Amino acid sequence: MTLLAVERMKLFSTRSPWWCMILALALPIGFTALIAAYSDGIALSTTQFGHQFGLMVTLVLAALAITTEYRFGTIRATFQAVPNRTAVLLAKTGVVGVLALIIGEVGAFGSWGISKLLHPESAELAITTAEQWRQVAGVGPVFALSAVLAVGVGMLLRQTAGAVTLLLLWSLLVESLVALIPEIGPDLQQWMPFVMADHFLSGGGSMAIEMPLGPWGALAYFAAVTVGVWVIGLVVTHRRDA
């Protein structure tokens, strides 16, 4: 518990996490509010279109949580105080993951709430089925797992610019361009981690390609990828100097 408290204090001791949290909530909720305000009606799935904005900011927040420690050299003092590097990194990842989960849920239900406020009589905004709950409440777990992935990438690269660039380019560009590879592109794209995460949220209804796994299988696959990257980052951290 002491490690968790220490990591929480370190995370919130600078301004960047606070600004990231504000942006991660304001962007999706604001985007959804604009759509709802200028449309006659809005579907439940449409209320979550803006979650991608929040996800990108959350990736930056999670990467900063580890890379800034390497940038300012505080990670050395941390490992000297607590030689068990695994415990330190688990605590840091846990704090960042829980924060990302909260951001995702608040952003998702906030986007839904603002839409409901602007269209109070819309039957399309009802949350009654398991699929509808997954579309909204599922945003939080995706954010949390994405934060774990970002921490893993940060452990591997150590530099903020490199980690943030890789995460944003991969999620925004690379996974889309993979489909352009002749013959194997579409099949390969099906197994991209963020494509799987989107499939979990959408249930495949808006996907242009047929997915090999169901929504919950897609979430499990995304979790396996994120944990795998994190474990690799942990192994590398143990093998090299801080």
Automatic annotation (TrEMBL):
It comes from Saccharopolyspora dendranthemae. This is ABC-2 type transport system permease protein. The chain crosses the membrane at residues 18-37, 49-68, 89-115, 135-157, 164-182, 216-236. Keywords: Membrane, Transmembrane, Transmembrane helix. The lineage of its organism: Bacteria, Bacillati, Actinomycetota, Actinomycetes, Pseudonocardiales. It comes from the Bacteria.
